[in-house]
Amino acid sequence: MPLSHDHIRTTVETYLARHPHEREQLGALLEALGRTGDDIASRSTFTGHVTCGAIVVDQLGRVLHVLHLASGKVLAPGGHAEPSDDSLAAAALRELHEETGIPPQAVTPWPGYETVPLDIDILDIDARPDKGEPGHQHFDLRFLFLLHTANEVPVVLQEEEVGGIEWRPVDRVTSPTLREKLLKIPLQVEPETANASALIYNDRGEYLLHLRDYFPGQIWEPGMWSLLGGGREPQDATLEHTVRRERAEEAGLDLADLTPFDTEYATTDAGATVPIAIYAGRWNGGPRELHLTEGVMLAWFTPADLHRLRIADTTSDLVRRHAASHPAGTTPQSGPQNERRASPHGTVLNVIGVHLYLERPDGTVLLGLRHPDSAFAPSTWHVLAGHCEQENAIACLLREAWEEAGLHIERQDVELVHVVHHIDRAGDRPRMGLFFRARAWDGEPELREPDKCTQWKFWDPAALPDDLVPYTRVAIGKIQKGQLYSETGWPA
């Protein structure tokens, strides 16, 4: 299936969120993305089309270059996207393999750049009358990879297109824009592992496993028992932040103590090898206490149970090795990690949520209708909202506004207008909801995440829908009155 226009546009906008000063110089690319009738992924679109490059760094910090025979230039491996490519990064890996023979398994996506290019440049391509090609532009998206092995990798050149290879130090990288970005990254040091998972155990010698959804081709290890965890995201300062964020997102679980245990390796759909950092933590609660948002269920299993589960061998090995070094009953039975979080005494972690109060000049307020399958407030109206990850609240708001509705908001146009401290149900984790008004914004609300929100609509605050999240109704009423703070759900 060809790369979609939306996939390319989202990738470019995510890149520009990191490099907003490049928006003007990438104007031609943005203009091409605005022409919905053009297939920007097709090499036959001569108003300009996408190409994908693989920036491969070895463990000495050198960058791979190839001699392209057609142009006579020494450049990073790369080329046109093909209809068979699942993603832009996969296209870059395919071109790397075709031009140099280096397999995708020999490289690892650089953490923080798994789906976002390190660099985007616009290249002017001369006309080739012999092939019937007029002069045009390449919108070159360049993805960063680490050569996964210190051993020399056999190279098999694509002889009709590539005349040789060269490993260059960063200060001799041919592309100025790429060289500038690479000089800001400590390439001589192997980056941190890209993914992280949690090996959660209790004092009975059991391990908490997660049954994944059975969506073949859409998720990794569909229908299998696995550990909670996922991929590192740009806002994660460390891999421990990654595993804590993933646990909170997938199950609402927070542990006081985590200890690095081991590293396992997995192969992505694109064929790249991704190391996964394993953190171990002890928890004596029950799966029913948790709020599962992904997958089918959570359950405790002993190492003796694993043989009857559909589970990866690497995961079984991790559990058994940990169990051998932590026999049941040898860990302390008390400690902060075993206390009930709902206790009214002592420190209780509160979930921070950000909310967008978007009011048109006519006074109407934006609300979204949540999907019927939503874990929270299904088929109910709510303002655009999200949970803070490893980021500040305003950064979270700007990210959520773009990801959920395609709205571009500048930081200086945001102001805090209300705070609601609430509990949904007795015993639930307390939540602090921050409502921010956007004084200005670009774009009209669009359904960017239809699995979460099925409709956007502006409502008159005096005639809000009946099926509205209760604390949202309270907050909108308080904002209309200019009141900054409210509480809901707390016992009298």
Percent of residues in β-strands: 25-35%
Task: Report the mean per-residue pLDDT as an integer.
Answer: 84
Q: What share of residues is helical?
A: 10-25%
- List the total number of helices: 8
Overall 3D shape: globular
Distance between the termini: 57 Å
**Secondary structural class:** alpha+beta
Number of strands: 23
Report the major sheet: 5 strands, mixed
Return residue spans where pLDDT drops below 50 for at least 5 consecutive residues.
189-193, 330-346
- Rounded Rg: 25 Å
Q: How would you characterize the overall build of this protein?
A:
The protein has 492 residues and is of the alpha+beta class. It has 8 helices and 23 strands. It has helices at 5-18, 27-34, 88-100, 176-182, 239-251, 313-325, 393-405, 470-480; strands at residues 49-57, 63-68, 73-75, 78-80, 107-109, 119-125, 136-147, 162-168, 195-201, 207-211, 225-226, 228-231, 259-267, 273-282, 297-301, 351-357, 365-370, 381-382, 384-387, 414-422, 431-438, 453-459, 485-488. Strands 1, 4, 5, 6 and 7 form a 5-stranded mixed sheet that branches. The chain has a 5-stranded mixed sheet with strand order 19-16-21-20-23, sandwiched between helices. The longest helix is centred in the N-terminal third of the chain and has 14 residues, at 5-18. Mean pLDDT is 84; it is low at 189-193 and 330-346.
